[in-house]
Design goal:
about 200 residues, alpha/beta, UDP N-Acetylglucosamine Acyltransferase, domain 1
Length: about 200
């Protein structure tokens, strides 16, 4: 019954949805005043909608038609989300983790599937290993029309090339050439095989 009423109710619900979005943005501003950008990042983990607009309001460049599903985890944002750029026609899935110690660029048409992690730095912290393995950072770029599968980990300094496909669960430690397919078994240059 509700399914039949939905087409009639949807237009009436649009103003309510817009009003709720405005309330969410005001709440994010209040959190920012109280807790700085880390508080806003924490709120993005709990929001049901409005992730793209929330990112825009705090410095990220997010295209109007980009779909950011959320919840979204962001860490290491210094004073805002200015290190994040999301292009036209992109899709960022649910529970994606983004480290903004360096720039993260997701170009037009790219897809980052659910539970993917984008890491822009390595830091051994206060352990003795820090002397042998000093802190390293590097930007991450996901090229135009690239696809990063569910549960991937993309490490610092990596570029996933235009039209490349990264299969689910892959740890990406090196650049993926344009049009290539990277699976847990390794890199393939053919586009017609399934990951």
């Amino acid at each position: 019954m509700l399914a039949r009423l939905r087409p009639w109710l949807r237009p009436a619900g649009r103003p309510v949805k817009r009003a709720l979005a405005r309330v969410t943005l005001w709440r994010l501003r209040w959190v920012y005043l109280r807790e700085d950008i880390d508080g806003v990042a924490a709120e993005l983990r709990t929001l049901r909608t409005g992730h793209a607009e929330g990112l825009r309001r705090f410095g990220a460049r997010v295209a109007k038609d980009a779909m950011v599903v959320g919840p979204l985890s962001i860490v290491n944002a210094k004073t805002d989300f200015g290190n994040l750029s999301i292009g036209k026609g992109t899709h960022i899935g649910s529970e994606v983790f983004v480290d903004l110690a360096e720039r993260v660029v997701v170009e037009s048409g790219a897809t980052i599937s659910m539970r993917t992690m984008i890491i822009t730095h390595f830091d051994a912290g206060r352990s003795a290993l820090a002397e042998r393995f000093p802190r390293r950072t590097g930007p991450v770029r996901i090229g135009r029309d690239a696809y990063v599968g569910a549960g991937c980990i993309v490490l610092h300094g990596v570029t996933v090339g235009e039209g490349a496909l990264v299969g689910a669960g892959v740890v990406v430690t090196e650049d993926v050439p344009a049009g290539a397919i990277l699976t847990r078994e390794g890199l393939r240059a053919q586009k017609d095989r399934r990951p």
